[in-house]
Amino acid sequence: MNTASDLQDRIREDKLPKDQGFSADEVIVTVQPSPPAEEPEPIDETEEQVTSGKTFSQQSQENDAAELALTTTEQVVAVPTQIITNELYQIRNTLLEMVVRTFQFFLNDQNGDLVTFLESDAWTLEAEVASGPGGIGSNSNASCIFMIDGFCDMSLSLDAFGDGYNLSFTVRNTNGTVVDTIPAYDIDAINVGPRPLDIIFTDYPKVEPKGVSFALTVSLWDEALGTVADPTIGLPDNITCSLSLNGASSLDGTTIEDIDGMTGSAEFVDLSILDPATNYSITATCGDYEITGPEFAVHDWPEMATVRKQTIGLKYTGSLYYAVETINALNGVIVEGQDSITVTDIETGLPPQHKYIDLSKYDPLEDPTCYDGITCNL
């Protein structure tokens, strides 16, 4: 069977049989084309199209999500979930009654990472005594604010000696609301040692005449509060104090006394030293406590004489009007805290008739030289 292509070639070459009525000038060619390929049926997205077990719509959504994930950065929100401290041993074993200690706390998030804060945040950590012999000390602050670096330093004390304290810590946000994602942090088995005490001299000699009685007082000192111990806190009983003199003489009188639990002090009232010197000091020993006072002087007669371990020089030039002021200034240098002196007429042994000179009777040529606090007071 001749194809359309063969027929066309033979027409061009004029090779068709003439006797069969073919003419090269008139050719009728009928070409039957091949049938077209079948078109695919349109996709109906309303019905399930099985592609790896998923609908076309599901596959498209997953592809879109995968492309979106490639162009976005994952954001993780930190949720505070835990209160942490690295000083648990110190809290349980090193506290003393009313002694302020500072402990550091911080927060971890759900991934165990440190939580930090913005400057505008004001989250606080609060502590309370859930159980125990006492409560929070009045000299401490049972709350602290978390800094931007995430740490919170709490200065804490407990007001009673004893064992078995249980402290509970909670976190509040900027609005003062307890943060419900962070459970309370409890620390139990906390032991608090006795309040630390020491001794001081609350009455001590400065300058004393030889052989004349003087007083001395030793008092308990509250190390936690930095003050003389208040007897209401419950001071220890049966503390005996003994005194010893440091120097080339002996301390006469009663040198052993007990500290009175009602006052917190031991008073010595009949002490005396016979030998003059300028470098005496007294040491007090009260149980486990000991203190040595500063140096003081014991002077010889006459009784009104005063001695101080200091060399001074004084020159006065000026009107007699300022004589008494000059003597008082000198006396203030010799004996601390004394700003007056008694003047005696050496001829009569009595006070002079006139301590002051009436300047109205004199016409001074010029004003005397004034040394403020020494020859005059400006």
Task: Note down, in words, how this protein is organized.
By secondary structure, the chain is mainly beta. The chain folds into 4 domains: 1-33, no CATH class; 80-193, Immunoglobulins (Immunoglobulin-like, Sandwich), CATH 2.60.40.10; 197-299, Immunoglobulins (Immunoglobulin-like, Sandwich), CATH 2.60.40; 310-378, no CATH class. Helix content is 11%, strand content 29%. It is built from 4 helices and 18 strands. The strands form 4 sheets. Strands 10, 13, 14, 16, 17 and 18 form a 6-stranded mixed beta sheet that branches. Strands 2-8-7-4-5 form a 5-stranded mixed beta sheet. Strands 9, 11, 12 and 15 form a 4-stranded antiparallel beta sheet that branches. Strand 16 and strand 17 form a beta hairpin. Mean pLDDT is 78; it is low at 22-27, 303-313 and 355-359.
